[in-house]
Amino acid sequence: MKRKTLGNNRFGQCLGTLFPLWIVFVVVYVSGQQGDDGTLEVQMKDGDKVVKVQLEPFMDMCRGTYKLPSAIASTLFCWYDVRNTHSLLTPSKVEVLSNDPFVALMHDMVYDGEIAQLQALGDTHIKRSGITNDSWLPVFYDNHQTYTLHDRDHPVVERLTRRIERATGLSCETAEDLKMIYNEVGAFKTSEIDAIQTKAELHRFAYAGDRLATVLLFLNDVPEGGYTIFPKLRVVIPPQKGTLAFWYNLKATGEANPLMKYSICPLMSDVKWTAKKLIHTRGNELRHPCSPDAAPKPKQQN
């Protein structure tokens, strides 16, 4: 299976234009150090004032110029998943992007007719920017819009849920509703992790448990930008129509895995459609059991 090549985009050209502008304001370089989160914190002097600037080291991932080291690429592989009866007829095409923590792509998981139906179900919710009747100028709405779909809303939604269960081997009994996401040019998302982080969410999902895994479906091809990146893993996922991205959010201990923080690069052209399914721990105790090595070690008594 051929991995999609990440080409150069205008995001890199934009950075090349912006960085010289910093030189106008920055007079003397003071010092710099690497942060725990991977950012490079540079202290520069602007007159009598010291300014701290954070330069993200993973901009090459958003530009599409990052190349995976051969030492890591040689450990990755693809296979046809035939773990159940349904897969014998239509096996999943699995491409591993990271072994530990596990991140994988499953290709050809959603079809054109299904995508059109999912989008049609959101016609009353989504506002698309464009030329208006009384003006030649475009009207710009929020470039990040969402709506949710329950299994009972349409057979195509329920069919996708069953397909996700077969592909991942996990139960969607306590999973959240399918979240449809519509992005226009300029949309992006800063670093986040899908595991539960707040007390409000902890109470809200007390019955379902934490968010064990994330399923992200790409519903159209994107010419430029819009990559999903894991900066600490150095993993880049290009939007590719019909592809399903899957990863675990938790460690074997059940704690949130900080390595699974991800960002979404700015969308440089066209629009982007994705669908997100968050799978919780309840109902998956036997499908995804804790590793014996993850058990807490007893404290030694003096």
Give an overview in words.
This protein has 302 residues and is an alpha+beta fold. It contains seven helices and 17 strands. The strands form four sheets. It has an eight-stranded antiparallel sheet with strand order 4-5-6-15-12-17-10-9, covered by helices on one side. A four-stranded antiparallel sheet has the order 11-16-13-14, with no helix packed on it. The chain starts with 9 loop residues before the first helix and ends in a 22-residue tail after the last strand. The N terminus is likely disordered.
Task: Write a concise keyword list for the protein shown above.
302 residues; alpha+beta; 8-stranded antiparallel β-sheet; 4-stranded antiparallel β-sheet; 7 helices; globular
Brief write-up:
With 302 residues, this protein is α+β, with helices and mostly antiparallel strands.
- The SSE string, one letter per element, is HEEEHHEHEEHEEEHEEHEEEEEE
Cα distance spanning the termini: 57 Å
- Look at the helices and sheets and give the structural class: alpha+beta
| Low confidence ranges | 1-32, 36-42
Give the proportion of residues in helices: 10-25%
Radius of gyration: 22 Å
> What would the principal axes of the Cα set say about the shape?
globular
User: Roughly what fraction of the amino acids lie in strands?
Assistant: 25-35%
Number of strands: 17
- Spatial order of the strands forming the largest sheet: 4-5-6-15-12-17-10-9
* Biggest sheet overview: 8 strands, antiparallel
Number of helices: 7
Mean pLDDT: 81
List the helices and strands and how they pair.
Layout lengths: L9 H16 L2 E7 L5 E7 L2 E7 L3 H5 L6 H4 L4 E4 L3 H5 L2 E7 L4 E5 L4 H9 L9 E3 L2 E5 L4 E6 L5 H14 L9 E6 L5 E4 L6 H6 L6 E8 L9 E3 L4 E3 L6 E5 L13 E3 L7 E9 L22
Antiparallel strand pairs: 1-2, 2-3, 4-5, 5-6, 6-15, 7-8, 9-10, 10-17, 11-16, 12-15, 12-17, 13-14, 13-16
